[in-house]
Amino acid sequence: MHGLIESMRLELSNSILDEMADAAELSVKGRRLAFSTDSYVVKPLFFPGGDIGKLAVSGTVNDISMKGARPLFISLGIIIEEGLGFDILKKVARSVKKASRRSGVKVVTGDIKVVERGAADKLYINTSGIGIIEYRGRVGSRAKAGDSIIVNGSLAEHGMAILNARENFGFISGIKSDCRNLNFEVDKALRASGKISVMRDLTRGGLATALAEIARSSNLGIEIEERAVPVKPAVRRMCDILGFDPLYVANEGKFVVFVGKKDARKVKKALGRNARIIGKVVTCHKKEVRLITPLGSSRILPDLEYDQLPRIC
Amino acid sequence: MHGLIESMRLELSNSILDEMADAAELSVKGRRLAFSTDSYVVKPLFFPGGDIGKLAVSGTVNDISMKGARPLFISLGIIIEEGLGFDILKKVARSVKKASRRSGVKVVTGDIKVVERGAADKLYINTSGIGIIEYRGRVGSRAKAGDSIIVNGSLAEHGMAILNARENFGFISGIKSDCRNLNFEVDKALRASGKISVMRDLTRGGLATALAEIARSSNLGIEIEERAVPVKPAVRRMCDILGFDPLYVANEGKFVVFVGKKDARKVKKALGRNARIIGKVVTCHKKEVRLITPLGSSRILPDLEYDQLPRIC
Fold first, then answer.
1. Do B160 and B90 reside in the same domain of the chain?
2. A20 vs chain B: nearest CA distance in angstroms?
3. pLDDT tens digits for A269-280?
4. Predicted TM-score of the model (pTM)
5. Which domain holds residue B245?
């Protein structure tokens, strides 16, 4: 099935999109816009730290932010299974409202479709977003040799929170999703450095997958210090017990910034006390990400070949 | 259930959107844009005259066109049920491509989510679209007293084609959905008249529902000549047999134009040989739509209180 999904993506990408990008850059009569879409099918609808409504707003806000654009407007397409409780829809609507207010975007157009019982799993949401790229060239799409790599906080919380909520593991508690809008953090990073090589949010596939993509598209090597990568103890424990690598687990409020060494400390400071410089871009072992262990040995972090967890967003 | 859906819509509308509009008008640094979203859950996926891919592109193109905007960009969010045949996705992707090329829009961003078997009915699509409003004030949002009302062709074909395909009625054949992009027809209408009072595509709820909405929001009366409303014989027969009123059945390639009497013939001509002037706007029986029968009597066309057919788009 995993191979099939990949070929579907590829087919769509080849036949319709030049590049199945998280957000597209458009030019409309001299104004540069970012445009992005995502469907949210997360299960369960409500989880510690968020719900499908919060996720649907902040996920799309974040995709736009990663382009260096300021998110302005959101659309909301909802598919509901007949029989869904009105209280659930109300709760989700309130959450969409709160998340959009918090991130400073306006929900301007919407649509609800109802399908019969059994034709959807409770409720799905699509959001599309429009942002404006105010300063051209502040955020590039490729890493540069010598760049420092900064992450804005600890990893793997969203994926583990969803799994915990879905499977009702009794033995672990206190893990909350990091689901939140990143646009203001991105703003801070941009104000700290006029020139960011590339940014990426660490959703599906986590840190390792994002880095592997960047290494490949930039034709450069990446080195990460294992000891510098922040993971909270409870999250690490849950990953250990269940056999997940936190570097591959999805986040919904984390991103990496690639920036020239001279601006790295400024950007790290701008991103707050949880931010860490975790590695650098090198000219050797091109297209490869290497994790340097505390003992000084290194291992390659390959691309994630399949989704570790279905329906995490 | 119908009442519940309505209160859901209202709840969302109140809590998030000022007005659950088909398309929103936005201003981005002095550029006026139209932005619209719709989810498509049509059943079956393929039907005479179209499929979910064509529908998803042209439906959103049409919502934008009704604002007097030129559609430019489309996003594509697909939710797939695990196990869906690759050939089906391929066919839909090809159809999206063809429809977007035909309507002159570019699919610029996309997303696929796969849910487990039984968590969706084969395939759902959300499209959002961005258009540019090049000339302000060419299309208003209210009817004016004395306006002529023009429809661009015969009614009720989409709804009846879907029902026919879904239920496999053997006794009726040759009914094809009118599903198509309207942006170039809208362009022609706009070139024929510099000032259109209001336009509306005749989707869910058909002609009668669109007119009832316009009468109400314009605080004016509407009179329609029953004999002038075009419906093809096979479609009328199917409606008669199954007890549907063609005035309330959904279309996917039809719209009404409200325009001052002096421009009416020009607009009708611009819309081609299937267009008809079907009625006028009056200052009496405000907020009411009346159908004038061939005998000269009249009956009120009320708002459609519930969807006649589920999953027609």
1. no
2. 6
3. 999 999 999 999
4. 0.94
5. 148-300
